[in-house]
Amino acid sequence: MAAKINLLLKRAIDLFGSLLGAIVLSPFIGLVAIMIKLGSKGPVFFRQNRLGKNGKTFELLKFRTMVTNAENIGDGIFVREETDQRITKVGKLLRSTSLDELPQLLNVIKGEMSLVGPRPPVPYHPYKYENYSQEQIKRFLMKPGITGLAQIRVRNSAPWEKRITIDVEYIESFNVCLDIKILVITVLKLFRKDNIYLGS
């Protein structure tokens, strides 16, 4: 019963938080969209298939921070450092503050994501869904999040195996109070640039 109540409260926080955020930040989101359009050729949003709850694929939204077709240039899906030539000038600012994630508020409203949860990987990296171990696949028992326990601890500085371990820890210890703590810490860390890139 407690688990069901926590999940209901989590969804309520997701809906209230994402709707409020989308409304309050709409002028800022519009400004960012204009900056992206003026800064480089291509769409405002970057769309990519990701793995969600129980391995179901959904289309994740982000502000575009790289040149068009960047996935087929250089290191592909990997961005190892901020000097990557595929990152636009506006994109560097958005990435350093994680503001490129704001469009995922729509994914939360649609019920594909949560404000807090494991970050959703692409379907083919680090593993295909069926290739995660019995322990690792626990990370897909809940909806993926815009932020999460791994994000506030190591962000992208640790290899996937370490991040997956932290994701499983989150799943096993989930409660609404933990979600609120993660959200508060995320806001405090918002303008810090550490742990954005994995240098190896």
From TrEMBL:
Its keywords, alphabetically, are: Membrane, Transferase, Transmembrane, Transmembrane helix
Its Gene Ontology molecular function terms?
phosphotransferase activity, for other substituted phosphate groups
What is the residue range of the signal peptide feature? none
The record's section on InterPro entries has: Bact_transf (IPR003362)
Q: Which domain of life is it from?
A: Bacteria
Q: Where is the Bacterial sugar transferase domain?
A: 10-191
Q: Write out the transmembrane intervals.
A: 12-36
Keyword check for Mitochondrion, yes or no: no
Presence of the UniProt keyword Membrane in the record: yes
Q: Which family does it belong to?
A: Belongs to the bacterial sugar transferase family.
Name the PANTHER family on file. Answer: COLANIC BIOSYNTHESIS UDP-GLUCOSE LIPID CARRIER TRANSFERASE, UNDECAPRENYL-PHOSPHATE N-ACETYLGALACTOSAMINYL 1-PHOSPHATE TRANSFERASE-RELATED
Name of the protein described by the UniProt record: Sugar transferase
Which species is listed as the source? Salimicrobium jeotgali
